[in-house]
Amino acid sequence: MFKRSNRLHALGGAMPRAGAFGRRGLLLTTAMLGLGLAQMVRGQTQTIRIGAPLPMTGALSPEGLRLKQGNDLWAETVNKAGGIKVGGSRTKVEMVYVDYQSNTPKAVQLIDKLITQDKVDFIFSPFGSGATKASSSVTEKNGVPNIAATASSVEVFDQGHKYIFGLLTPNNTLIEPTSELASARLPAHARVAVLARNDLFPTAVANELEKAVKKRGYEIVYNEKYAIGALDHAGALVQIKAAKPDWIFVSGYTNDLILVRKQMKDAGLNAPVVTMITGPSYREFVESLGPLAENVSSAVWWHPASKYVGTDIFGSTAKYVETFKARFGTEPDYANAVASLSGVVLQAAIEKAGSVDRTAVRDQLAKLKMETFFGPVAFDEKGMVNSYLPPVFQIQGGKTAVLYPPAIATGKLR
Amino acid sequence: MVFLQVLLNGLLLGGIYACIGAGFSLVWGVVNIINILHGSFIVLGGYGAWYAYTHWGVHPFVALLPLGVLGYAGGWLLQQYVIRHVMAAKVLVTLTLTFGLNLLLNNLMTFGFSADFRKVVLPSQEPISWAALTLPTDRTLSMVAAVAVVVLTHTLMTRTMLGRSIVAVRMDPQAAQLMGVDVPRTFAATFGLGTSLALIAGAILSPIFPISPVVADGYLAKAFIVCVLGGLGSLPGVLAGGVLLGVVESVGSYFLGSSHALTLSYVLLLAFLLLRPQGLMGKKGFE
Questions:
Q1: Which of A169, A231, B104, B228 is deepest in the core (most CB within 10 A)?
Q2: Whether the complex's predicted ipTM surpasses the cut of 0.95
Q3: How many structural domains compose chain B?
Q4: Residue B282 lies in a domain
């Protein structure tokens, strides 16, 4: 209040003298204004702006929050170190988040807005294969590098787009090693039951499993999908029990998998091998199920138990986990980590290009080869990462034992 | 024997559905408000029970008592100070208001508890086995608790002054007012009771279903179907509607496959809306 009246007073006081100053005063003011504007404009180009449409509300909000944590951690760590090296100087990064409310068409609109109105330099994709695929045509049209943290379906990358780069290996890279490990504990003509959520990713991994199972000469004795939002699986489980499977494979979101595992116990159903994708990689799966989580195996693109050493800003898996824990108080999961990796990869490309020119950065992304806390990163000609082996793991004694790849294994399948 | 097991599963599920639908039916039937907040209230009850269990070791079936009281008070205040102002407006206005409040509550819960899934993990209980049938212990207990709550509420409605005035207002608000019933207060009490039932349902379901703000819509959808099947505002109807839905879903998913269980429940909803809009136990002309 005081400040305001003082300023008003000062302005009022200056008024009568304005005439005396005349044109010189006006010129001076204009010049100062111009200087200020120039400073503002330079201020804007002095940060690298990254647009990230995230599902902060709606059905995908748990994933949205995870991605945001991962992105934030990278941006904060980079800025603490002074920023990204562009040519000779360091430039800070700024994340520009928008909420697309778990609604894919809205994500596409918002990306358009981020590029044309908010003038962001680069884009981090929305969540999942479907939304990423939809978003990639907008970034392609505008020539903006688009880093896709959570798209694992090959269909996203075979559209001939040049500006999209995916950080998850294809779905079959999760299923093949899982099947190979399971086969050690299964009879020659194993009976397999598959229950999948009727949704893009869960159905895709179930299809991959079918292929892997048939290749090994196993018999599929049950193969059904359950509806999104199902509150009860008792009917399916009664049928699975009657089919006497050696291997039970369930795909779905964490809440589905918690419910299925709980109801398996209720129905008195078990099998030598139980695999669930990807719920067991989240700590709440283990916390919510307690002893029931034991011996459930799974596969996911990254796990905090991995032991990679990288040239990125985090340095190693262990250091990444430590930094994440210090910042958020919990252990990171693959969604957190891959969101941080988006930043790591973009940073490397910008530093190699020595500029924020989108085409130059895109070209550097295409030929990138680097070791990171997440594992080695390099892209194939479609822009999909093909350089690391996703870990297969199992819950043993309430903890995660990594079974595959051998280089980081901490246990054997039980 | 397998069919008997499927039927048994359906009955258990039905009791749980009745519990989900009770408060919603009461509020819709009496206050004539489609309470979009209902699903989020159930989740809130779940969080209450989860918090009490993990921090103080209080069993959800004990925690449901204070949660019920808190729910009543909260619902009463919400009706008295917020919803009352739009009572006379068209149904779309009250719908929009509860829709907006639901967004607020749901996002506050996401903010406070995060969207991670939680669950009350009771000490491992072996399912009860009898011949070739298995009865999941916690589902059975929750079903018994759910039915007990509905029956108790029904007794409250038929035996107490408050209950009688709620029933009277439900039948004819003008006549009830002429007979000396304080209609605005009865509305507030009914909304309080509805909220209380939602929070209690949340506590009862906490050992069965994962708790997260994102499951609220699923509960709301179930409540809606149960309500239409059973008849608005009728507690015996809620029980009948819940059991019907549970059995149809369970038997349907056995014969047609899991992916069609949900489709079947919506087909049932449509069939009732077309052929018997007053529901199983609702009064005709009251739909």
A1: B228
A2: no
A3: 1
A4: no
Mean pLDDT on A99-124: 93
In three-state secondary structure terms, B240 is: helix
Alpha helices in A317-372 (DSSP H): 317-328, 334-353, 358-366
Distance from CA of B97 to the nearest CA of A (A): 19
Question: Are residues A194 and A183 part of one domain?
Answer: yes
A260 and A402 in a single domain? The answer is yes
For residue range A126-169, list pLDDT tens digits in order.
998 889 999 999 999 999 999 999 999 888 999 999 999 999 99
Domain assignment of residue B270, given as a range: 2-275
Residues A178 and A251 in one domain: yes
pLDDT digits 0-9 by tens, A160-188: 999 999 999 998 899 999 999 999 899 99
- How far apart, in Å, do the first and last CA atoms of chain A sit? 71
pLDDT digits (tens, 9 = 90+) for A231-285: 888 888 988 999 999 999 999 888 889 999 989 988 889 999 999 998 888 888 8
Pick from A65, A227, A287: CB nearest B114: A65
- If one counts every other C-beta atom within 10 angstroms of the C-beta of residue A33, the result is 10
Q: Is A234 on the interface with B (CB under 8 A)?
A: yes
For the cut 80, the answer to whether the pLDDT of residue A293 exceeds it is yes
Looking up residue A196, the CATH number of its domain turns out to be: 3.40.50.2300
Tokens linked to A377 = 């990163």
Residue B281 in domain: no
B284 within domain boundaries: no
Residue that the structure tokens 């009914």 belong to:
B190
Peptide bond connecting A278 to the previous residue in cis, omega within 30 degrees of 0: yes
d(CA A163, CA A365): 9
Beta bridge partners of A94: A49
* Domain total in chain A: 2
Look at strands A273-277 and A296-299 and give their pairing: parallel
* Separation in Å, CA of B212 to nearest CA in chain A: 9
User: Does residue B280 lie in a domain region?
Assistant: no
A167 φψ region: left (φ > 0), alpha (ψ -120 to 50), beta (else): alpha
A397 and A265, same domain (yes or no):
yes
Whether A65 sits inside 8 A of B218 (CB atoms) is no
Nearest-by-CA chain A residue for B7:
A235
